[in-house]
Amino acid sequence: MTDPDKHKILKNLPGIDHLLELTKKDDQFLDIPRSVILECLRLSLERIRKDILAGNETNAAKETILFMALSLAKEKIRPRLVNIINATGVVLHTNLGRALLCEDALDNIRAVAKSYSNLELKIETGKRGIRYEAIDELICELTGAQSAIAVNNNAGAVFLALNTIARGTNVVVSRGELVEIGGSFRVPDVMSKSGCILKEVGTTNRTHLRDYENAVSDNTGLFLKVHASNYKIEGFTASVALKDLVALGKNKNIPVMEDLGSGTLIDFSKYGLPPEPTIADSVGSGADVVTFSGDKLLGGPQAGIIVGKKETIDEIKKNPLTRALRIDKLTLAALESTLKLYRDEKKAILEIPTLRMLTIPFKDICKKADFLFETVKKDIGSMADIEFADMNSRPGGGSFPELNLPTRCIAIQPKNMSVSRLEINMRLSRPAIIGRIEDNKYILDPRTIQKGQEAIISSTLTKILVKK
Ligand SMILES: *Cc1c(COP(=O)(O)O)cnc(C)c1O
Asked: Is the pLDDT of residue 127 over 80?
């Protein structure tokens, strides 16, 4: 194309005002904000101009420009935080939003969000109230603690507690407990940021009471125990029980704190899972402060809960950092509703999705697997080999490290597509479906698939395998 030709085409391009007028008559642009349409029209025109100048073959028709702008606009207004289907079997999947909330929590969030509330008002006196009071009593009732406060997350809870109790002093921690939880939460870093001086004792695999005792100096401000969460030391190991550390603390007049990480209110061993100390156990051992997450084994909203001796919790409440880490009213609403269910353990197990998915009996998993199998088989039986595969699910969220939960998965091997292509296409579909590949098969674990999602999974598989 010669330069004069190019300029002629450029000159004939429709003007932006004219294009904007055309979009007003097109229903496809109806729900798209004007500012977005304008920007996308500009972008489209710019691209076409560049193509023309570069001498590329270009379709500069109005319809083409409008179509281009519409695609760009749709992509722009597409919601970014969206629902996905978790078929990984990892119950507390940090990348997938950790705990699902129970119905009561969802209802309460809506109720509290829609209306004014007594977030910081004492209704009886008309005076200013304290936001934590909504849950303080309830947490104490469930854990046996004297006092409680909830903040933004457990990382914040640990930071706040350390900063309040032990700023400027030595905090004694076993070398086996200097863990990294992921997402940049590392015990030594949190320690230094909170103004404490880390005093490591013992070895990676073995730490004894005398190690803590020998580390005590005039500047020792705290004994800290940290739940190893996402890893496990096996073999020749020794650690000090919380109650022994509390006894030493009493003797030396040094407070004791435990970061439980995930923290549970129920004894999971009743449901065939390994015994994990409950929050009440830690409180009962006499720790001054215990911290745990709201959205791990508790199955509630993201939060960090601090329980312990009244004096210590009162100090924490007075720390100005508490304001920076404070819990919002929606979280508080969800937390109260979730915690309330724990007054009746049977109800909690049934209604809190995390507990339900962790304790579901194998025979019920098999029923879910049967249903998924039948649904999928009916739709894509001719296009793939489908079979059951007895495997393991993971609790996730740093709870029950290395624990395998027996599960029955569906394993799919497409006849005309690679397994990795199938995995990618499932992930790129809307809603995204997250499965995994094992032994060159695409694996779907029914444990974390919610009621009603089987049909979506099956129709998505069909679309992908038919289209290919
Ligand atoms: C998960 C975890 C944390 C961080 O809790 P968040 O609620 O994710 O902030 C801190 N300590 C331990 C031991 C944990 O397992």
From this structure: yes
**Residue for token digits 């209110």?**
265
Strand order in the sheet with 436-438: 384-393, 405-414, 441-444, 436-438
Check: CB of residue 203 under 8 Å from CB of residue 177. no
pLDDT tens-digit readout, 56-96: 888 889 999 999 999 999 999 999 999 999 999 999 999 99
- To test ligand 1's pocket by mutation, which of 98, 187, 194, 259 has the most ligand atoms within 8 angstroms of CB? 259
Q: Three-class SS of residue 195?
A: coil
Contact 198, 191 (CB under 8 A): yes
What distance separates the 2 farthest-apart alpha carbons in the chain?
94
**CA angle (367, 369, 374) in 5-degree steps:** 100
pLDDT digits (tens, 9 = 90+) for 282-291: 999 999 999 9
> Position of tokens 């959205």?
295
| Share above pLDDT 70 across residues of the chain, in percent, rounded to a whole number | 100
Separation in Å, CA 398 to CA 20, 200, 280, 370, 395: 53, 22, 19, 30, 8
Query: 334 CA to middle of ligand 1, Å?
Result: 19
Distance 260 CA to ligand 1 centre (A): 8
